[in-house]
């Protein structure tokens, strides 16, 4: 008798909400979140495409096929290349941004040998414009995402990075691209600051100010004091003498020489507070937002279970067909006095069970399996309904017990269900028990 695997696969998909609540997520998170966040993202996107297309891994020997979900994921990673953008492209973006930051600062400082560096140009280029771009990025983060068509910059980046296969996953791609843009902005500002300090070490840098409409030095001092308010408790704003000496009028020499460099600390602090710090904060927010969204999607997805079912479908049909039809399960009476009865997704009110696996979080089940001391006195009998579907999480539970040197017997119990699929379900459980090297028995009906 053959098993209707397509029907089982459809039931797995329709029960995805059940998987979300009960399946193991710890090792799945650990698998996908290895390495950088960028690698985690594209590892998951590639895996998602693999499963949705119903592709199967090539396993040359069914007898040596993986029996646990983690082993299947490892095999998938060994045979499939992730859609990660070329790392050199990401590094090139960072280097190009740093180069533009250095070039912009050198261009600005090159005016210092003439009359001094105009403080308005420095504030505009390295404080006002970066702050404005951060504001634009913040607005873009909270706009509704209806696809890449509404984000021409993001769409261009997707094309340049060769991410066409993942265009439909813009919910994850756009936060990642926003994060990369902020990283480029950070490289620009850091490079500009380092260039300034290197240049100022070997060259006298003088900042001056000039204005057609600002006639009074006091007005300029008040404006600088307002801009310096965020750091006024740590560094004072330029005083009246410094502002007066730094004023430049066309056709006139500078007011003095003693304090002409007094504006550079103000300019550097403005670059840090208005140019670098907002970029850094936004980059952290973008990274956190991406990680949170990716983690939530992995936790709520039924793709790992679908993947496991598809691969089992590919290798088990031949193996199950070799099982003799007349091989009858041994019948054993459930006895809580002589057996340590552990349930697998049995009803919550099931009597005589010391623990019911699969109904709580994986962390709770794992902690109980590794810490419970009552296994030594009685044999462990894992009780489950015949109509349940063998899952990777159950294999992991069995592995924990086997690593502790505990022998496990799988007991199948029947409830009032239609009998047309009983043989198929039993053969499926037999194969599962064979892969996990445990004995399977039937429960005696009293």
UniProtKB/TrEMBL annotation:
Keyword NAD appears in the UniProt entry: no
Q: Does the keyword Amino-acid biosynthesis apply?
A: no
Keywords, alphabetical? Membrane, Transmembrane, Transmembrane helix
Listed transmembrane segments: 90-109, 121-143, 186-203, 263-286
Q: Which Pfam families match?
A: DUF2868 (PF11067)
Protein's name in the database: DUF2868 domain-containing protein
């Amino acid at each position: 008798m053959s098993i209707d695997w397509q029907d089982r696969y459809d039931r797995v998909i329709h029960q995805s909400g059940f998987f979300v609540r009960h399946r193991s997520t710890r090792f799945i998170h650990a698998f996908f979140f290895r390495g950088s966040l960028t690698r985690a993202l594209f590892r998951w996107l590639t895996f998602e495409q693999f499963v949705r297309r119903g592709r199967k891994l090539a396993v040359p020997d069914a007898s040596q096929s993986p029996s646990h979900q983690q082993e299947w994921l490892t095999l998938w990673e060994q045979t499939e290349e992730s859609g990660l953008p070329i790392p050199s492209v990401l590094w090139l973006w960072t280097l190009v941004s740093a180069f533009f930051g250095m070039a912009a600062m050198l261009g600005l400082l090159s005016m210092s040998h003439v009359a001094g560096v105009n403080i308005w140009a420095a504030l505009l280029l390295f404080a006002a414009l970066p702050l404005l771009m951060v504001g634009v990025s913040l607005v873009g983060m909270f706009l509704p995402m209806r696809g890449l068509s509404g984000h021409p910059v993001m769409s261009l980046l997707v094309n340049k990075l060769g991410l066409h296969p993942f265009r439909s996953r813009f919910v994850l791609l756009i936060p990642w691209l926003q994060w990369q843009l902020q990283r480029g902005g950070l490289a620009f500002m850091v490079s500009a600051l380092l260039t300034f300090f290197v240049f100022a070490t070997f060259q006298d840098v003088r900042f001056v100010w000039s204005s057609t409409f600002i006639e009074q030095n006091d007005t300029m001092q008040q404006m600088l004091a307002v801009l310096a308010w965020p750091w006024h408790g740590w560094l004072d704003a330029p005083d009246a003498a410094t502002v007066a000496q730094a004023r430049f009028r066309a056709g006139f020499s500078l007011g003095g020489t003693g304090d002409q460099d007094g504006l550079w600390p103000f300019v550097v602090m403005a670059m840090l507070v208005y140019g670098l710090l907002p970029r850094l904060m936004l980059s952290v927010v973008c990274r956190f937002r991406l990680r949170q969204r990716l983690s939530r999607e992995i936790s709520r997805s039924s793709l790992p279970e679908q993947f496991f079912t598809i691969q089992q479908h590919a290798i088990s049909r031949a193996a199950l067909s070799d099982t003799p039809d007349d091989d009858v399960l041994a019948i054993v009476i459930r006895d809580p006095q002589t057996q340590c009865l552990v349930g697998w997704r049995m009803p919550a009110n099931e009597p005589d069970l010391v623990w019911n696996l699969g109904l709580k979080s994986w962390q709770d089940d794992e902690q109980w399996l590794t810490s419970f001391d009552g296994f030594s006195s009685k044999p462990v009998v894992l009780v489950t309904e015949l109509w349940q579907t063998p899952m990777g999480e159950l294999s992991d539970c069995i592995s924990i017990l086997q690593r502790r040197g505990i022998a496990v017997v799988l007991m199948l119990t029947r409830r009032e269900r239609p009998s047309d699929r009983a043989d198929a379900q039993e053969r499926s459980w037999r194969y599962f028990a064979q892969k996990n090297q445990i004995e399977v028995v039937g429960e005696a009906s009293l």
